[in-house]
């Protein structure tokens, strides 16, 4: 079980105390308790849906690398409560759903308590702002666009409170530097919370209309369906990531000399893709291509991958089969899309001297041309047991020298621009203590190949 730092436990206790203070006026609040119970039951039922990347869960995602199930992901009911009920009653609506939600990571009780307190404080603050701006009257007798003003202010308040509390738990529980704990949390959450806020406002307006609560519940159906679809997408995405991670780990175990190389090629490929202006979906697929470009090494005898001396022509021909092995391995994985062609052709050269098919120029798929540059760059800038790393400027100079014959000049220029913006931090991937100077350098005219001396 993961140990929660004492400071984080104190922080959670303080937020729980704040939530209790928000609930203190409940005995004297005049409100239709049947509405409170109905909204609380609705929220608890909606929380059975799983949304790994739902709004308001940034700290939870960072703490567990993925969000626990059912934590603060379906917000229209909570925001409708903020628009319909007095602040203490609105805060009460969040508690049953958060306290009864499914949590995979331990300590489960503490995580549920934290989430319940966080949501109670956020809903209370949103309701307080909404009522202070006469939002209740705007809901009872809708006056658009004025009704959007108090609702918008309430949504902003809700998102801001979640951001402040999330950043605090990140800094204390995850030991994220204070400067970066809150960075980007508000901007990443605002759009999702605003969309849920509009649904909550529609629900509140219908609730107060002559059609009554039954009509208000109809608002939840399309929103719930869209959230369910979103959850399915993220489940599928998580399965994809797990598949890729398993394949990469298998390659790293088999070829310890290049451990970590695949992840870095994926990162460099993504940098090039962004510099080329590719959309986010293609950038992600290209990252997969970079990560999996050497998966075909699983079909190459381990003795060849770990051989210390130069390869014989026959051994080199065997290793040159790894792109085709890799393509066969991933051919049935539909989500990889264009990445499959990159895995097959990332050792092709513009002048036609590459393998496996000797493609020339534009015959080489775009993704393969990107991965070829990323692959060679990381190989040159990584220290391995059989040779030292080259400095980044020297590696870029070598890529530029071979552009046009081996590499696509446009991809090389994109990498240079990306490194100017973001820099590069090459990692040591050597698995032993042998000195690089004791092993001969590659004899290729250009540095086409990630495995250098030992493999193509």
Automatic annotation (TrEMBL):
EC number(s) reported in the record: 3.1.4.-
InterPro entries named in the record: Cyclic_di-GMP/3'3'-cGAMP_PDE, HD/PDEase_dom, HD_domain, HD_GYP_dom, HDIG_dom
Domain HD: 258-380
SMART domains given in the database record: HDc
Domain HD-GYP: 236-431
Keywords associated with the record: Hydrolase, Membrane, Transmembrane, Transmembrane helix
Pfam families recorded: HD_5 (PF13487)
One function term, GO molecular function aspect: hydrolase activity
PROSITE patterns hit by this protein: HD (PS51831), HD_GYP (PS51832)
Keyword Hydrolase in record: yes
Residues that span the membrane, as ranges: 6-26, 71-95, 116-133, 153-173, 185-207, 213-231
Keyword Transmembrane included in the entry's annotation: yes
Gene3D superfamilies for this protein: Hypothetical protein af1432
Protein name: HD-GYP domain-containing protein
Organism: Streptomyces kaempferi
